[in-house]
Amino acid sequence: RKNFHDMASVVLAERESLPKTIVVCGVDGDSSSSLAAISYAAALARAGLRVTLVDANPAKVITRSFDMEADNGIVDYLTQAALISQKALAQFSMLTKHNEQIGCKICAFGTADVTTLTDFSDDRVAGIIEALKPDSDVLIIETAPSGRQPDAVRMARHADEVLATFEAGTSSDRSVDTLRDLFAEAGVKKMSMVLTNTIERVA
Fold first, then answer.
1. Which of 4, 16, 115, 195 is the most exposed place for a label (fewest CB within 10 A)?
2. Is pLDDT of 196 > 60?
3. 3, HSE (Cβ side, Cα atoms, 13 Å)
């Protein structure tokens, strides 16, 4: 928990650079990126920042953790056949719900039958991210583990930085190096790594 508190303090000290978008993903399937995203969002909210947490991970851990399985979310707008209008984007921004427990807004994964976000255009993804920014100092988007799907790299193209989670003894050095290379190719300017087996649940 102290680790995320310190990271939030750094973001607060650089407040003139806000708003910013941060993608959180795991190096592999065992790296608890959902818990990292929740913990980081809570720490940022405690620091006095307006935070929106978006569940873009088909595992829906964040969505289930806050009993939002029946709520429309990011994938419901991504799967619309028509181009997203400005009015629709405004409605999307209202789909976020404030959670008193962690002190920030949460956008659920959604109800559409989607297993990856890679089939959607960059313009559509970018449009939704832009719709959420006005209400947030920090927008945190948690995606599927980078080792399983390219969703994290796709989202990272529209982010200011990436927070990658891994477990000592589980995530290989090769996986971490590969992840760094992928994000560098995507144009990510800042990448941080967090050991998830040191994370304590934020309550």
1. 16
2. yes
3. 17
